[in-house]
Amino acid sequence: MSIRVGGVVIDANDLDGLAGFWSRLLERDITRREDDWISLGPDLALQRVPEPKAVKNRIHLDLVTDDFAAAVARAAALGATPVGEMHEDLWQVWRDPEGNEFCVCVS
Question: Are 46 and 85 a contacting pair, CB within 8 Å?
Fold first, then answer.
């Protein structure tokens, strides 16, 4: 028997808005749309939830880029906000428009 990760699901109050953010940030098309679910390829999806985010994520995405300045500029233009300063010139924590934390990392 083996167990594997089938994908990552992000909770969203504004499903269309948050899916648009992640779709544009990651340059991924929406591949499946249902009333409470939007997929951005085979390994990333968003699901509608009724409650807003209330505490820090216990798990997050590390987004890797070879152009840190361009990546964080795009994230900011799409509505993300930095949580703090860059760490060790390698990574920085950001929040998407609904407050979900993710890291932008230098490859």
Answer: no
Q: Which helix (H) or strand (E) holds 105?
A: strand 101-106
Q: Are residues 105 and 67 in the same domain?
A: yes
- DSSP single-letter state for residue 84: S
Give the count of domains, the chain.
2
Same domain, yes or no, for 45 and 73? no
Structural domain includes residue 34 = yes
Task: Give the predicted TM-score (pTM) of the model.
Answer: 0.93
Mean per-residue pLDDT pooled into runs of 10, the chain (107 residues): 95 97 98 98 97 88 96 98 90 96 96
Quick check: 14 and 67 in contact, CB under 8 A? no
Helix (H), strand (E), coil (C) string for 9-75: EEEECCHHHHHHHHHHHHCCCCCEEECCEEECCCCEEEEECCCCCCCCCCCCEEEEECCHHHHHHHH
C-alpha closest to that of 57 among 18, 95, 14: 95
